Backbone:
């Protein structure tokens, strides 16, 4: 069986330990020859890298592992897959993404609204550069991208690299939802055959079939309405995530046709969500004080102790495993189905063909084969078209250096609405991001 050469870009991420553990768990089904981690932040990556040395010594001794900040060393090798989880600007800029809008009276969130706009404008440049670096040495390597905001990044990459068919943008939130449905219904989530449509962080499950072809969605809807909804790993989640999942019940009660992505709360109930957010302590602060601190403290402890046995930081989470099983399906031409981000081209008949939509597809060695959705109802079509226009204008604002298109994008976003407020927020974000964004004129 072929062993694969993998590059992880963003090796210093708090999510990396889960990814590394998934590689250990799935070493028989997805054997790895060489694993390289790349990050621009040497200090963060060293903590994770030294943890990895201990983990692999105990659980995956055959793997060849290295971590580096040297791009030439990382890219100039025979790569099969590149897993990308970059965060341009780090948590420091994420905190600004959240707090600047809140200080001006609108939602501040990592990937949604003006926070997502700011993050997207930073991510596009680095993602374009990354693809060019990979392709300089590896024309056929699959680039599996987790970098957020995934919809904006996907649109930008499709425009800049229209003929590159080995880039696949993915998000673990639909996977998290499927696993949460599985726990709620006491079923294996991998047995589900989902039908899903939308944009990234802006979509709905319309059906959820079991192995016999029975649609489980009506039963699942009733369970959510009767008992609420929690993430599959709720014991490990921060308070804000539990509140986010709890909002699913409200969304299903108001719009019972389908089951929503959790992020839709920001667009459907911006006033309600805004009132719950604390401008002085946002989710970025929660992550830095919570998950980030836990992960780095535990990784340091493991490195010093020389053993990862019983380590609390090592768990096989959805984020880590999802990208591995996606790669497996591609590498071995299995055609397993996943929710991924693709150019529409008629998949949803009454949406623009150039929209980068999120739908179910089978993944093969030749790439994704999407399942047709057909036409969608007016309400959902209207929501998606407005959001897609915002995303499209955001990408054009970056590529053209256009202040006008940036203003149009934020004015369209349902978390802002007011053109006056959009200009106020945009001007503040420009000042905060002057080291990252192109000049907007």
Residues:
């Amino acid at each position: 069986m072929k062993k694969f050469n993998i590059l992880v870009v963003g090796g210093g991420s708090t999510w990396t330990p889960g990814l590394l553990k998934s590689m250990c768990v799935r070493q028989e089904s997805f054997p790895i020859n060489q694993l390289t981690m790349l990050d621009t932040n040497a200090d963060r990556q060293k903590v994770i890298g030294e943890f990895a040395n201990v983990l692999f010594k105990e659980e995956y001794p055959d793997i060849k592992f290295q971590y580096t900040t040297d791009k030439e060393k990382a890219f100039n090798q025979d790569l099969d897959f590149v897993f990308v989880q970059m965060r341009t600007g780090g948590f420091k800029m994420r905190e600004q993404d959240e707090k600047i809008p809140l200080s001006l009276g609108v939602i501040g969130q990592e990937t949604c609204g003006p926070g997502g706009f700011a993050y997207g404008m930073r991510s596009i440049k680095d993602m374009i550069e990354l693809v060019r670096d990979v392709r300089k040495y590896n024309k056929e390597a699959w680039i599996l991208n987790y970098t957020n905001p995934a919809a904006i990044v996907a649109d930008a990459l499709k425009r800049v690299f229209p003929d590159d068919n080995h880039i696949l943008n993915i998000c673990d939130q639909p996977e998290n939802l499927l696993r949460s449905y599985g726990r709620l219904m006491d079923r294996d989530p991998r047995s589900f055959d989902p039908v899903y449509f939308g944009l990234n962080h802006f979509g709905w499950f319309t059906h959820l079939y079991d192995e016999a072809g029975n649609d489980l969605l009506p039963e699942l809807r009733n369970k959510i309405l009767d008992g609420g909804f929690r993430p599959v790993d709720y014991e490990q989640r921060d308070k804000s995530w539990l509140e986010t999942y709890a909002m699913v019940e409200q969304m299903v009660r108001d719009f019972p046709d389908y089951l929503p992505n959790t992020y839709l709360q920001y667009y459907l109930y911006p006033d309600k969500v805004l009132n719950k957010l604390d401008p002085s302590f946002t989710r970025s602060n929660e992550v830095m004080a919570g998950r980030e601190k836990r992960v780095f403290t535990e990784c340091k402890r493991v490195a010093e102790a020389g053993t990862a046995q019983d380590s609390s930081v090592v768990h096989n989470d959805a984020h880590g495993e999802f990208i591995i099983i996606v790669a497996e399906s591609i590498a071995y031409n299995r055609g397993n189905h996943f929710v991924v981000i693709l150019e529409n081209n008629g998949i949803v008949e009454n949406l623009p063909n150039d929209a980068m939509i999120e739908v179910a597809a089978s993944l093969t060695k030749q790439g994704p084969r999407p399942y047709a959705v057909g036409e969608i109802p007016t309400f959902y079509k209207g929501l998606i078209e407005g959001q897609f226009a915002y995303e499209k204008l955001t990408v054009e604002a970056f590529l053209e250096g256009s202040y006008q298109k940036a203003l149009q994008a934020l004015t369209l976003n349902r978390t802002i609405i007011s053109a006056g407020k959009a200009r106020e927020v945009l001007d503040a974000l420009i000042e905060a991001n002057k080291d990252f964004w192109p000049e907007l004129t």
